[in-house]
Amino acid sequence: MIPETAAQVEPQAQVILSPEQNAEEQRWRQQLAQSFRTPKALLEHLQFDEQQIKELSANDQGFSTLVPKAYADRMQPADQQDPLLLQVLPQVAEGLSAPGFVTDPLAEAEFNPSPGVVHKYHGRALLVTASHCAINCRYCFRRHYPYDEQQRSRSQWQASLAHLAEDRDLEEIILSGGDPLALTNNMLFALLDKIEALPQVQRLRIHSRLPVVLPTRITSALCQRLKSSRLQVVMVIHCNHAQEIDTEVSAACQQLQAAGVSLLNQSVLLGTINANSESLIALSKALFNSGVLPYYLHLPDHVAGTQHFFIEQQQGLQLHREIQKKLPGYLVPRLVKEEPGMAHKTLI
Ligand code: SF4
After folding, report:
1. Among 187, 267, 249, 256, which residue's Cα sits nearest to residue 227?
2. Which end of the chain is more exposed for a tag (fewer CB within 10 A), N or C?
3. For ligand 1, atom 8: residue with the closest CA
4. 124 strand-pairing partners
5. Stretch 270-284: mean pLDDT, rounded?
6. What is the per-residue pLDDT for 344?
7. Which residue has the higher pLDDT, 164 or 285?
8. Which of 152-156, 198-202, 240-244, 292-296 is predicted with the least confidence, judged by mean pLDDT?
9. CA of 199 to the centre of ligand 1 (A)
10. CB 147 within 8 A of CB 1
């Protein structure tokens, strides 16, 4: 379920903001509420002609469309092959089945000891923090995740954190999608307070696509809160193409960096979007120019409805070799895949 606005998941008002911070908070929430929610609205904004809009918007089914205007504004007008548009526009192929492509390719349901907790790696646990994102990516490995059954509220977080508190080896908590930064500051800060109260936890990792798709979400109040945390904070932004990084995204990353947040990127190798060495090299350079280290390049998972993005391991390996020849080591992300039941990602 995707709330119309972030306000729908957050009735409380505990964080005291200055008038400027309040305006920043209202701004991103309003922008999120004004996102495109149908292919037709998005395609009209991109100036496709009537016939193209009719053809391209006919595939709106299942996983809903959600695209912030700030992200759409980085797409080329009337370009059906735009790498940003292809990440968010529903395709006919999503309705086709393919052998081996399933709804829970990583078997997360087997590692779900409490609603909203995925606990499969030593010393780390993942909290599915929100039941929505700020964008719906067609390739998403959680596009079939039962968010409705795993709805998050403060009392449910309490139950999840009580479960995690018993794990004395737990050093890191990972906040993941639904996107943690799609929560309002009130909700997010309340969760951070609870995590900081677990004495064994040393690191907080936030996986978010908000710095890329809605950079106004990186507000001064958020940066202040992260800066004041007793935890080491790592943010993994999920950026797949250099065209996703404009001056606003770059500025948001620099604000986070100034707040002491370590920034990493994790991208997915996606056919027709970034599966060529030029795109991957441009992405690594653009990330580094914004203070972000390219960390992981993921082979896509076998997610039902995403087979048209799929890249075979051999092709991924070949591309990885090509970029290794042209980039310094620190700009070459590790090529990995996730396998159900494994205690860590598999390095290719
Ligand atoms: S932001 Fe991440 S979790 Fe949300 S739809 Fe996109 S890929 Fe999936």
Report:
1. 256
2. N
3. 140
4. 121, 172
5. 97
6. 77
7. 285
8. 152-156
9. 30
10. yes
Q: Which amino acid is at 206?
A: I
Residue 141 has pLDDT above 60, yes or no: yes
Residue 341 CA to residue 185 CA, distance in Å, equals 34
Mutate to test the pocket of ligand 1, among 64, 84, 133 (most ligand atoms within 8 A of CB): 133
Specify the residue with its C-alpha closest to ligand 1, atom 4.
Answer: 133
Q: Name the pairing type of β-strands 232-237 and 293-298.
A: unpaired
CA gap 120, 104 in Å, rounded: 15
Cα of 179 vs centre of ligand 1, distance in Å, is 7
- The per-residue pLDDT for range 202-228, each reduced to its tens digit, is 999 999 999 999 999 999 999 999 999
- Token pair, residue 82, equals 């735009």
List the beta bridge partners of residue 336. 298, 347
9, pLDDT greater than 50: no
Ligand 1 centroid to Cα of residue 140, in Å, is 5
Region of 51 (left: φ > 0; alpha: ψ -120 to 50; beta: rest) is alpha
Q: How many helices (H) and strands (E) does the chain have?
A: 12, 9
The protein residue with its alpha carbon nearest to ligand 1, atom 7, reads: 140
Closest to 115 in 3D by CA, of 174, 154, 156, 153 = 156
Alpha helices in 270-312 (DSSP H): 277-289
Greatest alpha-carbon span in the chain: 60
Pairing relation of β-strands 124-128 and 117-121?
Answer: antiparallel
Which residue in the block uniquely carries the two structure tokens 């922008």?
31
Lookup: tokens for 21:
């911070």
Token code pair at residue 217: 């979400």
Question: Which has more pLDDT, 116 or 1?
Answer: 116
pTM above 0.85, yes or no: yes
Query: What confidence tens digit (pLDDT) does each residue in 62-82 have?
Result: 889 999 999 999 999 999 999
